[in-house]
Amino acid sequence: MFKVYLEKLTKLLLIMLLIAVYTQVHAQTSITLTSNASGTFDGYYYELWKDSGNTTMTVYTQGRFSCQWSNINNALFRTGKKYNQSWQSLGTVKITYSATYNPNGNSYLCIYGWSTNPLVEFYIVESWGTWRPPGATSLGQVTIDGGTYDIYRTTRVNQPSIVGTATFDQYWSVRTSKRTSGTVTVTDHFRAWANKGLNLGTIDQITLCVEGYQSSGSANITQNTFSTSSSSGGSTTVTRVECENMSLSGPYASRISSPFNGVALYANNDRAYYTQYFANSVHTFRLRGCSSNNNTAAVDLRIGGQKVGTFYFTGTTPTVQTLSNISHATGNQTVELILTSDNGTWDVYLDYLEIQ
């Protein structure tokens, strides 16, 4: 009798421990850094790097972050995406951002990243502090996303890089006028650089970044939305959003690596969501996913808080389900994939959402 009681007590304590750990992990809404660190949070790569001085970076969900710096020599704060492929194979990468930016001295608000083979550090500078970088001779101008940018190439000799101390080129696009919100079509800058003979290799990372140099200041990134589009059928644009890059909420929603890299929704009110800008009010939506068994799993599509349709998946083989010619609100809208009809006989696994 005592042995049976002890076994039940042990199982109960183990379940309570697992619930406590799960709750702590999924309740985490931010992380705060004060020294050099990098990692992944809510599907976004983050990094704080400095060589000296006082820094604080708080990383929030959906790639948002805030930062403060003082008495620094050089410091970078950034969140974004890690890649390991050529820029041509990425499709069209866009970043929609919004920031409160308060530099005191030399600083940049920019899209920032690295490529390898060749090793290149690149900047798309949207705003700056007291000095407009990079202090070189412009190779010409290009108009992208309604703004005019000067293109530059500079070289760093025996300086820190993602592969250690090295000599490498820097590619720059610098706006002729400052802004702290908008959409940056990153791929158009890569193409403009290539037209000037400034070729990138394998893209390691693309991030939204605040950099400070021998200065102080603060910034609050309130939006940092990545989207990737590819051409399909002539002039039609298809935007694909990987579900593992979406934010998650609900009692059990989690990211998975099998049967694909994606997310799992296990119970009612589990959801994956992100912010999408819609210029038009009618689109076709395609969702790839599957059920956890031979039963039919269902997941609602909500846009701006309104249910606009339901995707159905039968069986464990991943399929693409389509909702055609769906009417919805325009502008920046929250797109949600939400489980609302679970009866305890299935779970749903989601890979990606395409919008056409």
TrEMBL record:
<dbReference type="InterPro" id="IPR033123">
    <property type="entry name" value="GH11_dom"/>
</dbReference>
<keyword id="KW-0624">Polysaccharide degradation</keyword>
<feature type="domain" description="CBM6">
    <location>
        <begin position="239"/>
        <end position="356"/>
    </location>
</feature>
<dbReference type="GO" id="GO:0030246">
    <property type="term" value="F:carbohydrate binding"/>
</dbReference>
<dbReference type="InterPro" id="IPR013319">
    <property type="entry name" value="GH11/12"/>
</dbReference>
<comment type="pathway">
    <text>Glycan degradation; xylan degradation.</text>
</comment>
<keyword id="KW-0326">Glycosidase</keyword>
<dbReference type="InterPro" id="IPR008979">
    <property type="entry name" value="Galactose-bd-like_sf"/>
</dbReference>
<feature type="signal peptide">
    <location>
        <begin position="1"/>
        <end position="27"/>
    </location>
</feature>
<comment type="similarity">
    <text>Belongs to the glycosyl hydrolase 11 (cellulase G) family.</text>
</comment>
<keyword id="KW-0119">Carbohydrate metabolism</keyword>
<dbReference type="InterPro" id="IPR013320">
    <property type="entry name" value="ConA-like_dom_sf"/>
</dbReference>
<feature type="active site" description="Proton donor">
    <location>
        <position position="211"/>
    </location>
</feature>
<keyword id="KW-0858">Xylan degradation</keyword>
<dbReference type="InterPro" id="IPR001137">
    <property type="entry name" value="Glyco_hydro_11"/>
</dbReference>
<feature type="domain" description="GH11">
    <location>
        <begin position="32"/>
        <end position="224"/>
    </location>
</feature>
<dbReference type="InterPro" id="IPR018208">
    <property type="entry name" value="GH11_AS_1"/>
</dbReference>
<keyword id="KW-0378">Hydrolase</keyword>
<dbReference type="InterPro" id="IPR005084">
    <property type="entry name" value="CBM6"/>
</dbReference>
<dbReference type="InterPro" id="IPR033119">
    <property type="entry name" value="GH11_AS_2"/>
</dbReference>
<dbReference type="GO" id="GO:0045493">
    <property type="term" value="P:xylan catabolic process"/>
</dbReference>
<feature type="active site" description="Nucleophile">
    <location>
        <position position="121"/>
    </location>
</feature>
<protein>
    <recommendedName>
        <fullName>Endo-1,4-beta-xylanase</fullName>
        <ecNumber>3.2.1.8</ecNumber>
    </recommendedName>
</protein>
<dbReference type="Pfam" id="PF00457">
    <property type="entry name" value="Glyco_hydro_11"/>
</dbReference>
<keyword id="KW-0732">Signal</keyword>
<dbReference type="GO" id="GO:0031176">
    <property type="term" value="F:endo-1,4-beta-xylanase activity"/>
</dbReference>
